[in-house]
Every structure is written in structure tokens, then in C-alpha cells.
């Protein structure tokens, strides 16, 4: 079900891209969502054929968090924050690939070290974004700003996700009803994330159209 929500989000993003002078980050965001759909479909296909699909999600986690750090950095103007995120943008994928190849492996377990550290970075960067926007609000309403909705979605998702995804490696020994509960909760926060992304694209559509 959440893949359908991602596809709808992707279509709205494409419509926003057709508007005159869309924001620069929208081009890479569309590619990012398309990559997400591809990984989800591949993971589902391998799963229904009883094949291990962790390799897709472990590689995707690195790409995902590296891109999100880059994206949030593009929303900010504070020099110190930009410098710190620029350093993290280089260091994080290096350490994540070390974890992928030398520590947790590609297809044995889900790379929780990569995921949890990425969550911490994205949540911290999102908080920095909100601090910057509160300190320098600008002339327009925050609710009309597409970057506000993107950052809100990321802050919500990556605050809620670690307790759920962080226990993925223990799912095989969990009772089935616990697994179903985790799956449902993860589904809900995914849907909320992409609904907030969709709102950001709708903001682009509406305010570009009437500007």
C-alpha cells in the first residue's frame, strides 16, 4: 500500500516540475523518489520469491541518508551548519560503506548502524532547519514553504522510525503478532511521510500557479 502512496507522490512531484521555474532541489527529489519506488518493488519481488533482499535496502540506506543530508543542507544558509553538514556529507557514506563491506555485511543483516546514525543526522539537521527558520522567518508564511513540509516529514519519520526499524534483525525470532504490529506502524509513518512530501509539491503547484 505504501508503494502506491509513493507513486502518487511521484506523480504530484512531476506535475510540480512542469510549473515555471520549479525549485532546484525538485529535480533530484524526483530521482530520489523514483529510486525509492524501484528499491521497494525489487525488495517486494525478491521477498515473494523467497530470495534475500537485504542487499538492496543496505545499499539504499547509504544513498538515502547521503541524499537527505544533501537536501536538508540545501535548505539552509547558516555558514557553520553548512560546513558541518558538508563534512558529514563526506564522512557518513565512507563510514557506511565500511560498515557494509567489513562489519555488518551486505546481505546477512540489515545495517542498523548505518540506519540509526543516519536517523540521528537527519533529525539533527531538521532541527537546525527549524531553528534557522524560527530565527529568520522571512516574509512568507512557513506553511506556504515547500521546504517546511519536507523537513517536517523527515523530522517526524526519522524520529519515529528508529524504534521500529532498529529491531529488524530480531524480527525472525519475534511472535507473528509483534511482527504485524511493527509492520502496521511502519506502514503508517511511511504514509504520513509521503503525504507531507506531497503537500510540499502541492505548495509548489499552488503558489507557482498564482504567483
Question: What are the SSEs and their pairings?
Answer:
Elements: H1 2-17, H2 25-48, H3 54-74, H4 79-103, H5 112-135, H6 146-165, H7 176-209
Notes on the structure:
The protein has helices at residues 2-17, 25-48, 54-74, 79-103, 112-135, 146-165, 176-209. The chain is globular. The protein has 211 residues and is mostly helical. The chain is built from 7 helices and no strands. It has one domain (2-209). 25% of the residues are buried. The chain is 78% helix and 0% strand.
- The global form is globular
Work out the helicity level.
over 70%
Name the helix and strand elements from N-terminus to C-terminus, one letter apiece. HHHHHHH
**What's the rounded overall pLDDT mean?**
88
Separate helix tally: 7
Q: Count the domains.
A: 1
Overview features:
211 residues, 7 helices
Brief rundown of the structure:
With 211 residues, the protein is an all-alpha fold.
Amino acid at each position: 500500500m505504501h508503494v502506491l502512496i509513493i507513486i502518487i507522490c511521484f506523480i504530484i512531484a512531476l506535475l510540480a516540475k512542469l510549473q515555471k521555474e520549479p525549485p532546484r532541489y525538485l529535480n533530484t527529489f524526483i530521482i530520489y523518489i523514483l529510486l525509492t519506488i524501484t528499491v521497494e518493488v525489487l525488495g517486494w519481488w525478491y521477498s515473494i520469491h523467497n530470495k534475500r533482499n537485504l542487499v538492496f535496502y543496505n545499499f539504499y540506506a547509504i544513498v538515502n541518508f547521503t541524499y537527505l543530508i544533501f537536501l536538508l543542507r540545501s535548505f539552509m544558509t547558516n555558514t557553520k551548519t553548512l560546513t558541518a553538514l558538508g563534512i558529514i556529507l563526506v564522512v557518513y557514506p565512507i563510514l557506511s560503506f565500511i560498515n557494509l563491506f567489513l562489519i555488518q555485511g551486505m546481505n546477512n543483516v540489515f545495517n542498523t548502524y548505518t540506519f540509526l546514525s543516519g536517523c540521528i543526522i537527519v533529525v539533527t539537521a531538521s532541527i537546525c532547519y527549524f531553528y534557522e527558520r524560527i530565527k529568520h522567518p522571512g516574509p512568507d508564511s512557513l506553511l506556504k514553504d515547500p521546504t517546511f513540509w519536507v523537513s517536517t516529514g523527515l523530522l517526524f519519520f526519522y524520529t519515529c522510525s528508529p524504534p521500529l526499524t532498529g529491531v529488524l534483525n530480531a524480527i525472525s525470532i519475534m511472535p507473528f503478532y509483534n511482527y504485524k504490529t511493527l509492520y502496521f506502524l511502519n506502514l503508517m509513518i511511511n504514509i504520513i511521510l509521503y503525504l507531507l512530501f506531497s503537500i510540499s509539491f502541492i505548495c509548489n503547484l499552488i503558489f507557482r500557479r498564482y504567483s
